[in-house]
Amino acid sequence: MRADLLEHAGALGLKVFECDLTEADLLGADELWISNAVGGVRRVASVVGREWRSWSFFERLNRLGVPAPGW
Fold it and tell me: What is the pTM of this model?
């Protein structure tokens, strides 16, 4: 899963890097996803009261064939 995300991120114009995130980083994100080998890529709908209702990059990953079963 991780390799799929890293491979396709550039095609979406995303810069990929690893770092520790703070709660403020998460709350300031345009969209948020989590991933693992079993569930694929999943959209995050809310964190600490912050809600997301649009995931344009997630939809683009899905169209590129990155495993993304959604909810």
Answer: 0.68
Q: What is the CATH number of the domain that holds 18?
A: 3.20.10.10
Structural domain total, the chain: 1
Q: Residue 38 belongs to what domain range?
A: 2-63
pLDDT per residue as tens digits for the range 15-69 = 877 889 999 999 999 988 888 777 777 889 999 999 998 888 888 877 777 665 5
Sequence-distant (≥ 6) Cβ neighbours of residue 20 within 8 angstroms: none
63-66's contacts with Cβ under 8 Å and 24+ in sequence apart are 64/8, 64/11, 64/12, 66/4, 66/5, 66/8, 66/40, 66/41
pLDDT of residue 4: 74
